[in-house]
Every structure is written in C-alpha cells, then in structure tokens.
Write a structure and sequence with these properties.
19 strands, 351 residues, Lyase, Ornithine Decarboxylase, Chain A, domain 1, alpha/beta, five-stranded antiparallel β-sheet, TIM Barrel, single chain, 9 helices, eight-stranded parallel β-sheet, 2 domains
Amino acid sequence: MTYLRWAEVDLSAVADNTRWVASGLEKGARLCAVVKANAYGHGAVEVSRVVLESGASSLGVRDIAEAQVLRAAGIKAPILLLAPILPEQAADAARLGVELTVDSLELGRAISRAAGGRTVSVHLDLDYGLGRWGAAPSQASALAAALAKLKGLKLAGVSTHIGYVPGKNSVEAEEKLGAFARLSAALKKKHRGLLAHAANSAVFADFPHRRFDLAVIGNMLYGINRSKTRPAPLKMPWRSFARVLALREVRKGASLGYASEYLAPRRLRVATLPIGYADGLSMEPAERLIGLGAGTKYWGMHKGVKLPFLGRVGITHVLVDATDAPDLKVGDAVALPGRRTAAAGLPRVYR
C-alpha cells in the first residue's frame, strides 16, 4: 500500500536499546520496559514483544485499559500499572493479573476485597516531592506492614519517582535518592523479596549507583537520552514521512498560510505535505513574527536538503520551502520531525 504519510518504526533499534540498558544493571536486577501511551507512540504490542525478547522482565503501563490491550494480544509477562487505580477498578485489575501501584491503606483494602482468591502483587509508592501521588516516606514502614498483612496481597515493591531533570536539580536528586535508598533498605530487611525501584531513564543515566533492584525505563528504549553529561549509544527507532502532494512557484512578497502571516522573502518553490499537527507535527508557527527572512525552527529533509516549514502548521497539512531541492517532485517522500506520542493516527510501518 502506498501511504501519503506514515511512520517507520525500526524494532531492531528498540531491541538494541533494550539490550544496552539491560547490560547496565547489576547482577540480579531487573528491567521493566515502559510501554505506556502506546509505547510512546511506537506501538505497545509490537514493542512489548521485542523488549521482552531483548532483556526486559516486565512491562510498565499507565492504566488498566493499556494492560488490557497487551493481555488481549496474548502477552503473559508481568505488567506493572505505574499509577494507582480507583478502588472500583480493583476487581478488573485482579482478573487481569497485573501488579499495582498503591499509596494508601484504603486502596490496599479495596484490592484485598476484590482479589477473589487470587494473589495480587502491589508496589508501595512514596512521594519525594513530585506531588502526583504516593505516600509520605514517614508513613512507609507502617503502611508496608499493614499492606503485607492484607489477605490476597503480596507486597512486591517499594518505589518513587523523584522528578529529576538533567542539568537542573542533580544535588537535590542525589539527596532524595539517598534517602530512598536508606528507607528501602530498611523495608527490605522486614519484607523478604521486596524490589526497590526509583530509576527512570534520567536517573539510570546520571546516577548509575542508584539503579536499585528494578529499573523502570521508557525514554532510552526509544532512543531518547536527556542526560547532559553521559552519552549513550542509543538508536533512533522512529522516522515520520509524508509525500509531496503539490508543488508551486511563489513570487517574492506573496503571503502564505493562515492569516497571511508568512511573506515570501524571495521567489520560492513551495511543496505541500499532507501531514499536520494531528499527526505529531508541532503546532507552533515556523516563524514567530510576520516578516521577510525570519529564521525557521522546523523543517523536513529530502536527500540531505533542509525544507523549512512555511507559516503555521495545519491540522492535516504543512507547507515547506523546496527551493533548494529542485529535483523534488510530487510523490517524493520527505522526512519530518514529530512528537511520537501525538501521532496516534499515523500509519506505522515496522521493520
């Protein structure tokens, strides 16, 4: 089938990235591959199968709906819900056989009541300042003991997400990770087999001594390394493309796009691509102000030549400057930047 717009997903790149991350774990530590948000747009089912073959022992998702997609596809590996559920969802979660994030005794009791003879693994999440969810660290010991006593529950892990941003708050992050390390070590002495986890991709990269028992990794699997100081040999598995739908010559000074905001600084050869912000392109205007010769922020690529965006990106189209690509013709493919998680409707081609 000939697509007008599509994304190529290189699953071998995901596999290589997964193997590299897994190789950085201490002996006995495990990798939970985060496949939430449709595996960051790459395709949750396809990516899950690859990462499980490449070193991941479990999968991390956002909620029950995402877990159901994986179970329906026949994936039987452990699945961890990375956010707490609502108490009324406990029965569905127990039937799916997923591991749950818990931050209150009330939620633990709801899961216990709904277990129905099953054993549900739960991970006690602690809040070290991110403020999304999580119990206070001061409550951890008492809450862990209470959860461990509930029928049908297995206290499997203790976790936190510290909100570290590379290059921003490394001293604070180390203090919080150190505090979590001390607290989790104390809990592990009381609860046999407890897994401590606080390492997302940023922590994995910048704090290699804080990878703990389970690394919960998303970005790195998809070729993204936010570290400012530690390079990683990651491969990019995603490329967006669109075919040229129309070509036209535009005179100098002519206006283009919505609100006539773009004025051609010279005679231009303009290409129309049938892809827009509904497919993951940025909604920002390519040029901040009306004017002649303003710099461009986004562009496509064809045979190594940049094709700058002209004017505002539409919901289903974008105009690019093809003046420097005289051989470009209707039907040719142009590579484009894109937000993978925002490209829900873009067809995927796997290789």
